[in-house]
Write a sequence for this structure.
């Protein structure tokens, strides 16, 4: 799809066609949304769709998860006129942090960190990531926010797959994603 073309009928998720399949093997996600971010209207519509379920909700801050969640998270924070907090992989923050181990979508053991001075008791955080496949990364971010006394106001991602971890998140938190219900099975099975 042309990076300047905008379809006449812009149904929810039209921009998903901008994503490209993985050509680099199993250590990478099965689909790459980075081209979507290059398309001005695609990015705007994606962020609008992610934020729509939270209209009227009290959100104090948006947190994006390292690294691709920084793009959508910062864009969402700008639209909401809120601050942005980066939740990082271990070793990237040079301030006092709280750490949480997790297993990512590829089965690798990792550690997530957040600065300890950004979240206070009761602060309502919208967590944003590019994708929730197994839920391990998002669950680590949730645990960091809650351990610091924050409240998870919601979870937003381009796709929240119907995995065990994705269901755990959906059952406990208000969620938003961009995949229309008719396409969800294809995304769950990586087709």
């Amino acid at each position: 799809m042309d990076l300047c073309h905008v379809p006449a009928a812009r149904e929810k998720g039209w921009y998903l066609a901008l994503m490209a399949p993985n050509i680099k093997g199993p250590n990478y996600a099965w689909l790459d949304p980075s081209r979507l971010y290059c398309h001005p209207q695609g990015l705007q519509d994606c962020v609008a769709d992610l934020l729509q379920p939270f209209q009227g909700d009290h959100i104090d801050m948006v947190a994006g998860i390292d690294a691709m969640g920084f793009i959508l998270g910062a864009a969402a924070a700008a639209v909401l006129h809120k601050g942005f907090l980066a939740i990082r992989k271990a070793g990237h923050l040079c301030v006092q942090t709280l750490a949480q181990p997790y297993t990512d979508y590829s089965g690798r053991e990792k550690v997530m960190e957040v600065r300890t001075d950004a979240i206070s008791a009761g602060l309502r955080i919208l967590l944003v990531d590019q994708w929730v496949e197994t839920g391990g990364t998002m669950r680590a971010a949730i645990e960091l926010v809650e351990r610091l006394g924050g409240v998870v106001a919601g979870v937003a991602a381009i796709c929240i797959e119907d995995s065990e971890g994705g269901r755990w998140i959906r059952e406990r938190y208000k969620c938003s994603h961009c995949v229309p219900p008719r396409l969800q099975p294809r995304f769950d099975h990586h087709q």
About this structure: The chain has a mean pLDDT of 93. DSSP finds six helices and nine strands in the chain.
